[in-house]
Amino acid sequence: MKLSILFSTVALALAASPVSLGADTPVYKDQTAPLEARVDDALSRMTLREKIDIIHAQSKFCSPGVPRLGIPELWTTDGPHGIRAEVLWDEWDQAGWTNDSCVAFPALTCLAATWNPDMAALYGRSLAEEARYRGKDVVLGPGVNMYRTPLNGRNFEYMGEDPYLASVMVVPYVKALQNEGVAACVKHYALNNQEINRHTTNVIVDDRALYEIYLPAFKAAVVDGGAWSIMGSYNRYLDEHCCHNNRLLMQILKGEWGFDGAVISDWGGAHDTPQAIANGLDIEFGTWTDGLQDGRSKAYDNYFLADPYIAAIESGQVGTDELDDKARRVLRLLFRTSMASGYGHGSLCSDEHYAAARRIGADGIVLLANRDNTLPMNLSDGARVLVVGENAIKMMTVGGGSSSLKVQRELTPLDGLREALKGKATVDYARGYVGDITGEYNGVTSGQNLADSRTPAELIEEAVGKARGADYVVFVGGLNKSPGQDCEDADRSGLELPYAQDDVIRALAAVNPRLIVVNVSGNAVAMPWVDSVGAVVQAWFLGSECGNSLADVLTGAVNPSGKLPFTFPRRLSDVAAHAVGQYPGVKRADSPIHDERYDEGIFTGYRWHDSRNIEPLFAFGHGLSYTTFEYGQLTADNSEMNPGSTITLSMPVKNTGSRAGAEVVQLYIADNESSLPRPQKELKGFSKVYLQPGETATVTFTVDKTALSFYDPARGWVAEDGDFKALVGAASDDIRATLPFTYRNETAQNSNNNSSEPVSGALGCR
User: Which among 266, 363, 415, 552 is annotated as catalytic?
Assistant: First the structure.
């Protein structure tokens, strides 16, 4: 099996290498020819069997090319946080390579928390370079499903609860990745908002919520980012699986948005040949995830888009128009990636990639609370720092599902602090609690022995004893990537911290006021002790450079500037999906299907909290700094606008503290009166500004019609006449300035024309 992988990789490299082109060179080999001409020419030369072959897998992560025509295979790899280790041809077990370790970049929740499109571009470019070095054509990511419930085990792979934020952040990631000749496969399209019952859930959601909340980031990736591939999700919508869903794929993705790339099934996401033919699936992967081990002599030829498709054509049940469209899309993907030239060879585990991971991680860490300026650490010679908690020593790059990685190295929080404080302080450690001592996923092991036979009482006693007299206590806990926590294919059972960590934190807080709680997670957690600790830091899953990124922030080498990409509720009943929605779904009688109504509609996250006047634990957009920022007067160049005009808002922001730092200035728009219910305010712009002490910068936002529009199922996208407010602040619950303005539709304009549909980025931030 290993030789099969080797030969395939060599064949790919040879097919993609430059060749001398003569006058009679076929158009499809001429890289100077227009893309569509190359596609047409290659398609015209292919047999029925060859067309069928390229639209389904031949191994775990590879689909065949057309050897007769010199068209290479298409190699995919799991992301979105790093390049997955090689597996055997037909098995999930590791191939045993020694050169397939990678750099793990921070989870996408951390990237979203940077509120920094430049970090998204750095992320995409760095990941693409690792993919190219490993001979991968498609990275299965990024993920942009909306954060609907804090119990979703896969939230850590996504970009938060707000469609505007996710839309702005996904575009530079996709563009930078594809600028290196590696396709993004944006996932999981669509409505993949939980892991429990993920194969059997049928989502029932109104069109307004679909268009305003759950689709904008996908549309931004396609329309603004130019994504070359999309992955369907496991769940159902309108009682059709999303990997072959007529409404989502044919009508919206390929129809309304004009997507010209390939739709790839999630592994095992295809279920029916007629639906797969008619409803937009282009490449089928992983239908039998045991590959050739399922006992069939030609397992891949039995996929829904393989021999059954040929049989349907030969019997006259279907024609070949759909097949030609699918083959065209796969050829486009091949010509954009494995058949493209002009790209470098990439690089793996480079110093630049580690530096990027460290920088992105530090930029996304969020300082949630900082009582009496507990942070940054202010240490005198001979100071004592105690680190407590399993997450301070546990590798977090292994586990979590398909995003699990085999890394070259991973610096833990404990080792990062020891390195940063070397020569400045003594750093001691106490376990505090025992969670999951395992460290293995699909044959990749952490190599750690975390076994500890002591009782919870003994562990707490040790931690408390060491905490007395320590200058600082840093508790590093939260969730991990085990099933039932932040992990694919399972949801959390509740909002609380696992492994009785609350007891450890309370005990530490009782003996040391300089207790810093570092929560490692991709989800919100309950914090019943929040008012009794010195500081709270949201650290995410930070990847290979976790320890350095965290130490940079705790010591003040980096001023924290991350902002929350989702709301931290005080209790689960404060979350719309649990208060009025039907999470996790209602099972049909005599059927495996679970119907789940999204009865909260557009009122998710901070929109729900605002509408019900619910105080969050920490609000969407919240994040503190070691310096202070003064917001000046909000001004506008006009007080009234129409469909053909814009309003430019301006506000000076000054760093009034003693440290250099960055502030994320956030713009929300409120509609004073609407024909349909609307949120009190919605994010429509943001700008991250870096300021030296005493420095002032003017932040500007341009508001146009799209920023005011909402989706009316009867009329499409519409901006109604009336009075609006621009609200600018440091968080959704920290508005510093408000300015009214008026919108008037011109007589010649028709506000219910679908051409007014917002496109991500139409409301610019400068």
Answer: 266
